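Figure S7 source data.
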Amino acid sequence: MLTVNENIQNLIPFTSFSPEGKKTYVKEDHDLLKQIMENNKQVIKNKTSTNPNFYKNLAKGQHPKVLFIGCSDSRIPVSVTGLDAGDIFVHRNIANVVLKNDLNSGSVIQYAVEHLKVEYIIVCGHTHCGGVAASLEDEELGFMGGWINNIKNVYRQHEHDLKKLSDYDKKTALSELNTVQSVFNIVSNPVITEAWSKGQKLSVLGWMYEIETGKLRELDCRFESLDDIKKMKK
Ligand SMILES: [Zn+2]
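Tokens for the predicted zinc ion complex:
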């Protein structure tokens, strides 16, 4: 009779879930991958040494108060916030762009607001953003170009002022404006306006992360009610 493990392996031949002595289809590990597996063991050891039920508690469900929408850039792990697993619901893409009609970020926002009842939606831009820098070039970017065009549109809206700035300031300012635009797009989402009209506690705001210092700072675009949107429209 097959064990449970063997059953799974027969169904999914490429699984690494191999019983002792049985042929595995997984290729030889690379050093970095081996290192990550070792790191994982250490992370579990550290976590459970202070809180033996840490993972068991996580398995019961999630109750994050924050939805963090950031750039995919590897230099900004959500650990910059000092919060732990289970504390932050996350969505990331190139240059933290949130569009009004994007199914991907739209689904994340809907789930976060309607089901998780997060209290904060934070869009976090950053200095030295490759996506923002690419939007200032004329290079043909293929598939990625369609995404980057959204940042080019933000640039065009503010071209008059941005043109006057030095290269670093221009890129940083465009990152900020792109982040603010994403915040504007979020607060016009019916999921958000409906939550506010029902009295749900929810703040939508923009942050910038400075890669060169590791510091977070808030941008002047925080929305906490329908009244805040009305003020914006004036
Ligand atoms: Zn970026």
